[in-house]
Amino acid sequence: MDRRRLLTLLAGGTVAALAGCTRAQGDPLDTGSTGGDGGFTVPNFPTAPRLPAPPTGPKTQISPGTITALPGTGTSMALTVDDGADPAVVGAYIKFARDTGARFTFFVTAYYDSWSIHRDALRPLVDSGQIQLGNHTWDHADLTAISASAASSQLERAKTFLRNNFGVDGGPYYRPPFGRHNGTVDRVAADLGYTVPVMWYGSLSDSGVITEQYLIECARQYFNPQTIIIGHANAPAVTHCYDQLVDIIRERNLSMVTLNDVLLPPR
Ligand SMILES: [Zn+2]
User: What DSSP line would sit under the chain, residue for residue?
Assistant: First the structure.
């Protein structure tokens, strides 16, 4: 679907009916602008209540291999936020974390300016463990469509960026762009310490431009216990929905968690 057609559908309010909140869909092309530093403001969330602290029970030891959900029973929900095409949206997520205690994981596409622009604001939250970082490659290449050495360099370049700027490399967790990986990709990733491809159970469907109403619909469908949810820091809709997302999380007695809050990485 081209962008004009998509916008026409959005204007008609039919995109939700057309697309549905489909499960475990891929991670479509980033359509957000890479943006710049100027002109954006970080919104306030004065009415958002504090979210509960993460569970304090024992963590689950996992093995190398793909995960699509949190193992076991419980009330955790791992929101994972990808890409970072729009610096204003990354900034809003950081503010959301500060204001509400929300815990989540950014899968960083390292070439976007957002991660340098917001490094100083983000670093303390990474250090405290409230926000976790994972590897989402250097520039969002489809790792199954390039050579093994090119795939390796996609992950390695992002790894170096994360290490230099945030003191962590995101391992063992990585998210293959578009959700596309195979045996070769997994082997190359594992050689760099990324032994756990992180897929997802449900999507906020906001890799590109969608309506706020549709985003909330997707949250209502997918915010469930022990799920991994994918969202994107690419377009502003989500930044207008934080209060409603908090309401859904509280109504359902869910705890927002990072992967490290509930999982022990493979030994
Ligand atoms: Zn992505």
Answer: --HHHHHHHHHHT-HHHHH---TT---PPP-S----STT--PPP-TTPPPPPPPP-SPPEE--SS-BSB--SSSSEEEEEEEE---HHHHHHHHHHHHHH---EEEEE-TTSTHHHHTHHHHHHHHHHTSEEEEE--SS---TTSS-HHHHHHHHHHHHHHHHHHHS---TTEE--GGG---HHHHHHHHHTT--EEB--SEE---SS---HHHHHHHHHHH--TTEEEEEESSSGGGGG-HHHHHHHHHHTT-EE--HHHHEEPP-
- In angstroms, what is the span from residue 231 Cα to ligand 1's centroid? 9
| CA 57 to ligand 1 center in whole angstroms | 31
Distance 178 CA to ligand 1 centre (A): 6
CA of 25 to the centre of ligand 1 (A): 12
Centroid of ligand 1 to alpha carbon of 8 (angstroms): 24
pLDDT 10s digits, 28-67:
333 333 333 444 555 555 555 688 888 888 999 999 999 9
Write down the pLDDT at residue 55: 83
Q: How far is the CA of 27 from the centre of ligand 1 (A)?
A: 6
What's the predicted TM-score (pTM) here? 0.84
